[in-house]
Design brief:
The structure is a single chain. By secondary structure, this protein is mainly α. 67% of the residues lie in helices and 1% in strands.
Length: 517
């Protein structure tokens, strides 16, 4: 299996951390059980499905327009800039230390074990929240599809795509199915997602390209002028929402130890990022050409359906909705895969329990952990029923994820800057990519997140479970971060993980091997 698993590769020119071998030679326990079979195209399929361009365009653009109005193109472009610096940090760190733990491992070693654990924890809880609301989005898309096919009632029940109860129930059934496909092997998952992506992108390019040409609303320079956004709070919220749209490009790094060449993970991540930029810009211009601001913000989870109806008659008008359904299903599957592998890395350091290192001998995947994360996501999806409308659930979820992901990315970027700071003296051109850009990106993301949290705090005087309530919007990311601090304390003082002493991966106990699933 991959010789870099848990072992510290040479840090390269300008690195400032001294290597020392791990106690277990080239492969940690359990490494040989995972199959090394992926290439750059497979990594791209997983990362592109994680970013879910069709879902982000079909749903996320409407949510973002609610914050910044008809400024989607410039917001998507400005949001890309700090993410490019983050991608530079990921690529450089992956070059010297490919590891499925990615940010958890890099931050723990270069900055602090506590911060490293927090990065790993954020990756877990943000993906669980993402899976829970995407479960609902998937169910909503299927109900919309049923409505387009003429099925409006079932067993006397009126089918409502904006009902979180109906959408969640149907989405959980889909979650169970994609969890099973994730268990049977990452190769089969990647193959499935390649076919889904081809269909999604053909439909997306066709409809957005057509809308760009025939849309009734004229182009406006105001669309690319950030200075006409009404307030700093709206600008900050829009930028973090755009960061959320790009979130997931790093999923290719979480399967480092299942690729034939670890550098394929870096290539896949960067290709994904630039592909998403092109798609988001195309979608932003096309949606604003076809839809008014009220139409953009008023259709919530049904935005792509409405967009298709404005451009074509049935049955062609249903194609964007089918693409949205495929995108939601693919993002569910791709969300499960990197999360479980990140938890595998944490479990082998004994910062999480042994469940997450159990590998199926039949499929060569962390099957037990995959089932567990699917169950947790389903449970959170059920709890989210306290928010009755799908659109409100999406808004609350993406704002919370946007804030914590800004912390997650910023810490990883600062880890790169700390590790490669020696390049400032040795190679200024290399230092620009490995140190300066990551630091600037980290400062921008932390500033945006902090400003948005402050605006949430000052915008309300009472707590209410509603995406219109600032204290609730602040509570969600705060709870995600504070539970990480508690889990880190448990790992340090109860599990007594050596990770909190060294910040490095140490050999865990020999992982149990589950019976064939």
């Amino acid at each position: 299996m991959c010789r870099h698993w848990g072992r510290r590769a040479p840090l390269g020119e300008g690195a400032t951390v001294t290597d020392s071998p791990t106690p277990y030679g080239s492969d940690p326990p359990g490494a040989a059980s995972l199959k090394k079979s992926l290439g750059v195209v497979d990594g791209f399929a997983i990362a592109a499905s994680s970013t879910a361009a069709t879902t982000s365009i079909g749903i996320g653009l409407g949510v973002t327009a609610g914050a910044v109005g008809l400024h989607l193109p410039i917001i998507m472009l400005l949001g890309f800039l700090p993410i490019l610096g983050i991608a530079s940090a990921y690529s450089r760190l992956n070059r010297v230390e490919p590891n499925m733990g990615s940010g958890y491992v890099w931050v723990g070693r270069s900055l602090s074990p506590w911060l490293g654990f927090l990065v790993g924890w954020i990756g877990i809880v943000s993906t669980v929240v993402f899976l829970s609301y995407t479960t609902t989005v998937t169910g909503s898309a299927l109900l919309q599809l049923a409505g387009e096919g003429g099925l409006h009632t079932l067993a006397g029940l009126h089918l409502d795509p904006d009902s979180t109860a109906q959408s969640t129930a149907l989405g959980i059934a889909v979650l169970i199915a994609v969890t099973f496909t994730a268990i049977t092997g990452i190769r089969s998952a990647a193959n499935l997602q390649k076919y889904l992506l081809v269909f999604e992108y053909v439909v997306l390019l066709g409809f957005c390209g057509y809308g760009l040409v025939v849309g009734p609303h004229p182009f406006s320079l105001d669309w690319i002028n950030p200075f006409t956004i009404p307030s700093g709070q709206q600008l900050a919220q829009g930028l973090l929402l755009s960061v959320f749209c790009y979130w997931g490009f790093e999923s290719s790094f979480s399967v480092n130890e299942e690729v034939r060449d670890p550098q394929d993970a870096s290539r896949a991540g960067l290709i994904t990022l630039f592909t998403m930029l092109g798609l988001f810009l195309l979608g932003s211009f096309a949606f604003q050409r076809v839809l008014s601001l009220d139409e953009l913000t008023g259709h919530g989870a049904q935005g792509l359906t409405y967009f298709g109806d404005r451009l074509a008659d049935q049955p062609l008008a249903a194609l964007p909705l089918i693409a949205l359904t495929f995108s939601a299903v693919a993002s569910l599957q791709s969300g499960v895969i990197p999360t479980v592998r990140g938890m595998f890395a944490m479990s082998r350091d004994r910062t999480l329990g042994p469940l997450w290192t159990k590998v199926s001998p039949r499929f060569g995947t962390p099957a037990a952990g995959t089932v567990a994360i699917g169950c947790v996501a389903a449970a959170v999806a059920v709890l989210s029923l306290v928010i009755p409308k799908v659109g409100d659930l999406i808004l609350a979820s993406v704002n919370a994820i946007g804030v914590v992901v800004s912390v997650y990315y910023a810490l990883t970027a600062l880890a790169a800057a700390a590790r490669f700071r020696g390049l400032l003296r040795e190679s200024p051109s290399e230092a620009l990519r490995a140190v300066v850009l990551p630091v600037l990106s980290a400062v921008a993301l932390l500033g945006l997140g902090g400003y948005l949290c402050w605006s949430f705090y000052t915008s309300a005087d009472h707590f209410e479970i509603s995406p219109d309530n600032g204290w609730f919007m602040l509570f969600c990311p705060a709870a995600m971060l504070l539970t990480g601090v508690g889990a880190a304390a448990w790992a340090k003082w109860v599990r007594k993980s050596p990770y909190f002493v060294t910040g490095r991966s140490l050999a865990p106990a020999e992982p149990a091997v589950t019976e064939a699933a």
